[in-house]
Amino acid sequence: MLQIYLLCAILVTIFWAGLGIIILSASLIYRTTHYFHVTHQPYLRMLRSKGLLGEYLTYKNLRNVDGNARFLFNLYLPKENDETTEIDVLMIHDSGIYVFESKNYSGWIFGSENQKVWTQSLPQGRKSVKNHFLNPIMQNKLHIKYLKQYLSDFPNVVYHSFMLFSDRCALKKITITDGQTQIMNRRYVLEKVKGRARQVGFVLSAEEIKAIYDLLYPYSQAPETLKEEHIKNIKAKIEPQKPDTELKINGNPEIQQAKSETGAASVTQEDVKVCPKCGKPMLLRTSRRGQHAGEKFWGCSGYPYCRYIEKGEGQTKK
C-alpha cells in the first residue's frame, strides 16, 4: 500500500513539474513576440483574458504574412467628446492599414449591418443566454474615421476593415452590403489578408510604414485609468441600447409586412422589439384561438423560419 502511495505521489510530482516546464517554456517564447513588447501583458494574464487572448491569436495568425508588416495593439485614439475609441489590432502593411476588431466569442452570433447592438446566444440546458455587444462594423468605421484624422499627412493610405470572431462561434444571418468590409472566423484571416494585399498592391513604402508606426505607437501605451474609463463608457452604451430599442418603425419593410399580416391599423414603438434569436422585428400580437385565446404575446416576424415567442410580460413561453 505504501509503495502505491509513493508511486502516485511521484507521478503527481512529475505531472506538475512537467506542466510547469511547459508553461515556463511557452512564457519564454511569448516574451520574445512583438505582441508582448507592445502590450507588456504577462503570459498568464493574457491566457486568462478572453479579449487579450483573441488579440494574441489574431497576431499569431498574421505575423508571418508576406511583405513588410508592423503591428500595434489596443490603440486608444481620443475623440472630440473626451472619450476614446479602441482599436484591438492594427497592421501597417505594404498594401495599407488593416484594422481588426476582435470578438473572441463562442456560441451563435446574430446581427445586421445597421443594428447598433448585436447578440451572442449561448446554450444553457434547453434554453439559451443572450449577451449583447456593440456592432463591430460600426466600431471599425469609427476607428478608421479617427485614424484618417491622425494620419492626414499620409493621403495614399488604403484602409482595410476586418471583423474577426472566434473559431468557436457560428455567424448567423449577418448581412453586409459594403463589399470592402470583411467579417469572418479568425482561422480565415490570413488567407483573406493575402488576397486583399495581392489585389491592392504596394501603397506604402518602408519609410512610411515606420513613420506611421512611430506616430501611432504612443496611443498603444495608454494608462490603466484610461482603459477602465473606456470600458465604462462602452458598457454605458450597451445597457440602454438593448435590441428592443433599435428598431425604427417608419420605413421598416419587415414591420410593415408584419403589420399587414396582423391587420393592425398602426404600430408604435411599444408594439415592437427585436428577436434575440435571429434579430428580426417582433410584434405584440393577440392569440386568437386555443386555451390562450385573447392573451398577448410577442411573435417573431421571421416565422416560420424563426419560431421564437415571448409572453406579453416578457417571460418566454414553454
UniProtKB/TrEMBL annotation:
<dbReference type="Pfam" id="PF08378">
    <property type="entry name" value="NERD"/>
</dbReference>
<dbReference type="GO" id="GO:0003677">
    <property type="term" value="F:DNA binding"/>
</dbReference>
<keyword id="KW-0812">Transmembrane</keyword>
<dbReference type="GO" id="GO:0006265">
    <property type="term" value="P:DNA topological change"/>
</dbReference>
<keyword id="KW-0472">Membrane</keyword>
<feature type="domain" description="NERD">
    <location>
        <begin position="50"/>
        <end position="170"/>
    </location>
</feature>
<dbReference type="GO" id="GO:0005694">
    <property type="term" value="C:chromosome"/>
</dbReference>
<dbReference type="InterPro" id="IPR011528">
    <property type="entry name" value="NERD"/>
</dbReference>
<protein>
    <submittedName>
        <fullName>NERD domain-containing protein</fullName>
    </submittedName>
</protein>
<keyword id="KW-1133">Transmembrane helix</keyword>
<feature type="transmembrane region" description="Helical">
    <location>
        <begin position="7"/>
        <end position="30"/>
    </location>
</feature>
<dbReference type="GO" id="GO:0003916">
    <property type="term" value="F:DNA topoisomerase activity"/>
</dbReference>
<dbReference type="Pfam" id="PF01396">
    <property type="entry name" value="Zn_ribbon_Top1"/>
</dbReference>
<dbReference type="InterPro" id="IPR013498">
    <property type="entry name" value="Topo_IA_Znf"/>
</dbReference>
